[in-house]
Design a protein that fits this description.
Length: about 200
């Protein structure tokens, strides 16, 4: 089957996820900037980080499916697994926000990020296997250095929040630094994938 229905469904799910997260933000109790910082400040930070992650997944998903002609049952289920992981972002983000960065919610948030990364890798692997030895997607991702490094940072962040200074903030700070580092790493565009997408569209 063509990819248009899968892409439209995925776009709709991600739009709903973003909407749910922004609805979790608390309206300031007063009318001053200090009220915004005190009431919504933490929520804005967690929302921004999660929004960036969703944007990264949406962008990469969009580019990836430019290189896919047909969708099999395996691709459909792998895509649903990815969407399931991403749909948990509003829950884990709200927990981190409400707890004011307590270790356990930060660990669960990290596990959510890790599960989404694994689900995306599985989806990518299923597509590459479907395309066969001459896979255009395999050529586009190349060595996939960022894809291999990201889980290492997630695990490091999870272990930091879990094991380091649980009564304080050092472990949580290290965990958040790991999560932010991965986001920054993926925000930088991969020009190699863009080039392969353009070549594929021109050839098509």
């Amino acid at each position: 089957m063509p990819t248009n229905r899968l892409e439209a469904f995925s776009d709709g799910v991600l739009a709903i996820v973003i909407t749910i997260i922004v609805l979790e933000l608390k309206v300031p109790a007063g009318h001053d900037l200090s009220d915004l910082v005190r009431t919504t400040g933490v929520g804005l930070l967690t929302y921004l980080l999660t929004f960036i992650y969703i944007g990264i997944y949406w962008s990469n998903h969009h580019h990836m499916f430019h290189l896919v002609r047909q969708v099999t049952g395996g691709v459909l289920w792998a895509n649903l697994a990815l969407l399931f992981c991403l749909s948990l972002f509003p829950l884990t983000t709200a927990w981190v926000d409400d707890s004011r960065f307590e270790p356990t919610p930060v660990v669960v948030y990290g596990l959510n990020l890790l599960s989404a990364a694994i689900a995306y890798w599985v989806l990518q692997a299923v597509i590459i296997r479907q395309q066969g030895p001459a896979s255009v997607l395999r050529r586009a991702v190349g060595a996939d250095i960022k894809g291999k490094i990201s889980p290492v940072f997630y695990v490091a962040g999870i272990l930091s929040a879990l094991l380091i200074d649980r009564s304080g903030r050092i472990g949580v700070g290290l965990a958040l630094a790991c999560f932010v580092t991965v986001a920054i790493m993926w925000v930088v565009p991969d020009r190699r994938i863009d080039r392969v997408v353009r070549e594929h569209e021109t050839a098509g």
